[in-house]
Specification:
phosphatidylinositol binding (chains A, B); five-stranded antiparallel sheet; PX Domain; homodimer; SH3 domain (chains A, B); alpha+beta; three-stranded mixed sheet; SH3 type barrels; globular; 47% helix; Sorting nexin lst-4 (chains A, B); membrane (chains A, B); 3 domains
């Protein structure tokens, strides 16, 4: 193809040692190849250097195709689509742009896959496409699960955000209407596992049955792998569940796919968030190690959750090592019909009928609680992030300066010593060295205490952001129940069922709230305690350094 | 007089509880009285409030008298001048503007004094005026001490700064020429005390005879006194020398006068600096207490110095309690003829003739050393001042923010507790309280460690700035000696005396250098050690706070 020019829209840092080239917003590049594949183009920068850059980061200068969207728009699920064109590779993590390439079995036949899955591409509607789920909190919708009796079918093909609290449309889309009215049927085999809600004398509203076989999953330091003859590299994380002890290899895009499934399936359970996608410094060791820690937090929350930790798609994600089985499991998960409110079909809730007045108060109270928690968690996250940066920059700089000032004075002490040993000089220089050491401690400290605290809070921020929508499911169920009660055509018998199902929703919502409360008081509190312990160690370390220096003083 | 308007040039903080009014740069004031006296005017601020403000801080808006100089120009000695006008009260500390008023005997007859001393005012030359000494490092000049044989009389009425190293004019003005040539005679009774220079096997060049009766002087927390019926108030410091145990009352202006006398008398001994004059916040308790600490540092250095601690003007300053005697002592000090290089007439130096080559190397070496020390001390002072400010502002703010973030999260924990006790909430709020306490510790810390370090370094900065001029005296003496050696008219006998006197200068210079070195290794080093100890205590305190909080965690 003939050469054309493009303008760089966003900074991109090429990975050193690869064919990638760093490009900067505003630069004009001459494109020399567009058939590199996987969203990469080859071109010359203004300095005449040649290299690869992401097509999505540039805009054609001559009249050409319409503007390409920015690299991270509200993402579009890439499941089932392939990467044969330059338009659809932003959905995934930036280094995971080759989503047809499976690393499950470590086969290297991505080129074949590209051909096979070509028909799934872009706007051709097909079965898989319907199952695409936004990575954002898009409410669950599966046409099969919605009662055809509903009068609100008109807009259920539109994209709505989870923030939309229009009760009527939302109650349909969430599968709530179908469930409350009893029109949703379980998919038979789908309910392999029933979830129980317990209710002690202490719990007014019940809690999830605790896990009988708790397990953990370790995510090991990730490996950098390459494909396409070294042209592209990616990061693979090694996960080892304690119940199998078999390592599985997963990329960020697999987590992303899992997260989309979980969000689709559960709207009565808050799903912990995945770490944000991040572009810059993606191959830096620190970034990779940090993402590992973030994914570990996600995994830990999943493992501790009595519902999530037992669900099939999660189990598939943790255990599958065979590429064929992986694909089959993916298809099964995407066809799962027991999603949204119909999840309650698998819930065994206490029989006791609930009192509306008590429940309403508690829902209101928890709404305010979540709002407050969300706000305070965000605030502490901001502080943590800020302090981490300040450890690495400001505090380090301040203590370095203190150290340098003392050290220089100690050195000046030697100026009239004619090279002779001066204890005073050594002592003063030692003060300098001590503060330089403390500066180093500060530099490292942010990653030791503030960053893990931030990562923990990040999970809870996601949960407190999701729980209001869980709470809202209860309100919608209540509303639907009242609608039925006011409807003279609904028979008494049917009404009893409706009330029971609304109660199951309420029990489910409170079991989930109870779990959050338990996590807060155990997991979050332990993280805060760990933080404090790390801070203690840090200041003790400073004390030791100063003590050592003082003890050497005459 | 009729009202006129003025523009405020500098911020001024009025002392609360007095007639003073805070005014801010850029404001327009309506002046209602200019006859308040002592440089104060009365006026209305833009809010219509009435109060006193310093005339020197404002500028007349209408065509009026020429602009008044800023409040702290290179100061002009106020000795002997009175304050009957608004133009000449900047010489002294801003609250010491009434320098005719003696607080020595606490008499309250300032109005009479004003009249008596009126003729001394301003530019009328008189005997006292000649004795005025700049508060800046103005080199000593006393016409009586200069050999009339000198050919360099032409410019000795001009103002020269101490930085002027023109050897010929400086050697005359410093009294060096007269001393080396033997034309300066001691004033007889002036040499009541001889100063010895010792020389051990260790000391190549000798050191001051150590003090046989060391003493200390305590400066107590200053009192605020008033005069002129409460219109003006001033600060009096109470000094108690250990050898009399009798308290004397001194104002800053008395220190200032003393410093001028010392600077005039000694150019072979480095005089420690007085604290800088400072305008803002002058009546704040913290400022007053800090100035006390600074003056204590000045006093301590004086007391430790084998020459300065014994000199008459210092003794007079420390002991005089009678106003008449005070005035007599002042006059005597101002007439002292044994000043500048002629101080060496009172020095008993070792007999051994010095080797030029060795001395020259050592002088060069110490010149470089002083330059380096001066630079490094200034640098560390800057750091100390910076850190002190950061303790009070930045670090305090950072830790407060951390504390607030945790505390808010702990409070949010209570939102679904319906007023019930929550241990988790208490624990998390405790983290918040801990960091708020640490923020408070930081706020106070700067005054505990950085400020005293700064004050100590301030003394040494003054010394290292003065010592090069002391060193230069040796160079000038050497030059003068060489001039004599080259001059065929100088007889061998006279030459022997010239060489001896040049050696005495050299011995004196090295005794002073030796004293500095000793101070550095003892006093300064102890201050650095104290600083480190205070820092240790601070971090230990933080450790204890965090430990306490952790121990309360479940």
């Amino acid at each position: 193809m003939s050469t054309f020019k493009v303008k760089v829209l966003y900074d991109f840092q090429g990975e050193p040692g690869t064919a990638e080239m760093s490009v900067y917003a505003g630069e004009t590049l001459s494109v020399t190849r567009t058939d590199v594949g996987e969203g990469w183009w080859e071109g010359l920068n203004p300095q005449g250097q040649s290299g690869l850059f992401p097509e999505a980061y540039v805009e054609r200068i001559e009249s050409g195709p319409p503007n390409i969207p920015p690299p991270m728009p509200p993402a579009q699920s890439g499941w089932g689509s392939s990467t044969t064109d330059n338009q659809d590779d932003e959905w995934d993590d930036d280094w995971d742009d080759d989503n047809t390439y499976s690393e499950i079995g470590n086969s290297n036949n991505s080129n074949n896959k590209n051909k096979v899955e070509q028909s799934f591409y872009a706007n051709e509607p097909n079965q898989n496409f319907n199952n695409q789920v936004s990575q954002l909190h898009r409410p669950n919708y599966n046409a099969d699960n919605v009662s055809l009796a509903s009068t609100n079918m008109g807009d259920n093909k539109g994209t709505i955000t989870k923030k939309s609290l229009n009760i009527f449309s939302a109650s349909v889309k969430s599968g709530l209407e179908g469930y409350i009215l009893g029109t949703t049927k379980d998919g038979g085999s789908s309910i392999s596992k029933r979830i129980r809600i317990y209710r002690d004398s202490d719990d007014i509203l019940g809690r999830w049955e605790p896990l009988t076989q708790p397990y953990t999953v370790q995510i090991a330091s990730p490996k950098k792998a390459t494909k396409m003859g070294g042209l592209k590299s990616f990061i693979a994380y090694q996960l080892t569940p304690s119940f199998t002890n078999i390592e599985v290899s997963r990329r960020y895009k697999h987590f992303d796919w899992l997260h989309a499934r979980l969000t689709e399936k559960f709207n009565l359970v808050a799903i912990p968030p995945l770490p944000d996608k991040q572009v810059s410094g993606r191959y830096e060791e620190m970034f990779i190690e940090h993402r590992r820690a973030q994914l570990q937090e996600f995994i830990n929350y999943m493992c501790r959750h009595p519902v999530l930790s037992l669900c099939e798609v999660w189990n598939h994600f943790l255990t599958c090592t065979d590429e064929k089985q992986w694909k089959q499991g993916k298809r099964n998960a995407e066809k799962d019909q027991l999603i949204g409110a119909s999840f309650c079909l698998s819930v065994d809730a206490p029989e006791k009928e609930l009192m509306n007045s008590l429940v309403d108060v508690k829902i209101e109270e928890n709404m305010r609680y979540m709002e407050k928690m969300d706000q305070c968690i965000k605030n502490l996250m901001q502080t943590a992030q800020d302090q981490q940066k300040k450890c690495e920059n400001m505090y380090k700089r301040e203590f370095s300066r203190v150290g340098e000032s003392f050290f220089a004075l100690g050195s000046a002490f030697e100026y009239n010593q004619q090279g002779m040993y001066s204890k005073a000089s050594v002592d003063v220089k030692n003060i300098g060295t001590t503060y330089l050491t403390i500066a180093k401690l500060y530099e490292e400290q942010g990653k030791i205490d503030w960053q893990p605290l931030f990562d923990k809070l990040y999970i809870y921020k996601g949960i407190t952001a999701n729980l209001p929508e869980v709470l809202n499911m209860q309100r919608m169920a209540e509303q639907k129940k009242k609608d039925c009660e006011r409807n003279p055509q609904v028979q008494q018998m049917a009404l009893t069922d409706v009330r029971r199902r609304a109660d199951v929703i309420t029990y489910t919502v409170f079991a989930e709230l109870n779990h959050f409360q338990q996590e807060r008081d155990q997991d979050l509190k332990r993280a805060l305690k760990d933080f404090l312990q790390d801070q203690l160690n840090f200041y003790k370390n400073i004390v030791t350094k100063i003590e050592d220096t003082l003890s050497q003083f005459e």
